[in-house]
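hey so i finally got around to running the thing on that chain from the lab meeting. sorry it took forever, my laptop kept dying and i had to restart like 3 times. anyway pasting the input first so we r on the same page abt which one it is
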Amino acid sequence: MTSRPVVAIVPFGAKGRDAKAGGIGRQVARRLVERFADDPNVELRPVFLVAMPEAKSDAGYLVFGSTPDPDLAARYGESLGTTHALTGLYREDATGRAFAVSLVEVKSRTVAAERKIVVAPDELHRAEPTLAAWLAEALGVPAPGLAPETANEPSYQAFLAGLEDETNATLLRAGDPSAADQARARAFDEYADAIKLDPESVRAEDRLLVLAAESVERGDEDRAARSLEDVVEAKPRSWRAHYMRAELLRQLGETNMAIVALEHAHALRPLRDVDLILLAELYLAEGAQGQAASHLRRIAAGSEEFGRAQELLGVLAFGKGDRSAARAYFEQAAAAGRVSARAHLARVLIAMGLRDDASRELGEVLSAVGADPDALAQARRLRLGLDRPDLEADLERAGRAALSGEAARLDEVRAAFERVLVFDPQIWEAHFGLGLAARRTEDFIAAAASFRRALELAPEQPDVMHELGVALLASGSKADALGLLDRAAALRPGQAAYIADAGFAHLRAGDLDAARERLRIASTIDAEDPLTRAYLAELERIEAASGKAN
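ok and heres what got predicted. didnt touch it at all, straight out
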């Protein structure tokens, strides 16, 4: 029995009137690899050839493609352990366009088959499946799916251009981050153009969604969200585009728009229960309790998300003053394994005067293995109130004083926080208070240390994230501050100051586009906020000095 053929695909060389021809040659070769990716009858392995142009004037793009002779092609195949190597040349000139391809047998170093495929006017999108059909025939294996990736050449050209720029962005990132970012921006636009020219182009949508998913890590969520807005305009029934856009908008703090995008996705394809929870939480952030409850009630008892849904319904009921309903919801959530629901239940029991029952619930939380840090933080604070109401009163008074900036009382404030920490060194509010006191004296290093300890104890507390980010920014740690301030702004989407501070962090980091986007959102929330206005003025000053249009 003969093993399946394995083919090394050398990026095709090109002869054309501009750099675009090179991109077509390289990316059509790449597409062949992807087209056969799941084929059990044959394996295609890409050969990576990378070379920078020698002249600086030619450095606008990376050159990686060639048309080697059979001997060199065979050596490429040997290095990858293949049976064959495929080489090609894409040519476009006044006489027309064509691909000339050769299949080389690695062992004999001879050409096993060759073919010239003429590209008819407006038919470039059909060349790739034609090449795939010829290669399958030459290897003696069944042909893969042979439908073109797009319905027309303009869409295919935009798709290939997106692939080329996405590849360039990856290769340039280490040596020229600015050029890499520009290539990435072009790839977003090119994939969006491909979809607008052919709304049924699944592969172009796939690539755009991958770029969009990466944008959260790379900090260009606003750019990705704008591209997805173009996609949903051209393809309004793409639930994937609506869903990804919702996630990006949520990261940007655009809660209302994120809700709309998620609801569109939900209308096209019912959301998973975990996404319904997220949607409900977004509604809660906007104060829309009725819509939140409506989604939460849809989550059935057999769902893995049932406990979380019951917990949130309990929070809603308790907020309305319905202790009996809240207790029932929290008890169901606790029975479903939600340790954090026990902390909420203890709060209800305290309000009902059932202190012993509350104490038992708090004991369950504090002794639980791997309990959620926020649940532990809440339980510790409740236990402080139960066991030492005098210290809880001290904590609250000191907290108000620290926030009000009463400098004359700072020693008294610090002493109060330290007394609380003697009782329980893991109460985050006391560490947070010490950080506020240190910040009042502009001791940003000490403030950051206290805020960092508070964040360890309450990892999702946005006020702590924000204050730690501000302290780090003030002490010169811009990179660490950036992520914290962005995260805090996402968790407090209605707080103009939080979003403005995130914008200022991007401004300090030199990312003017990200800074302007965040400051625009902050200004929309509160156009008169003096902090936002000051940051915008600084942004405009820097843009004017650099010659960048605002």
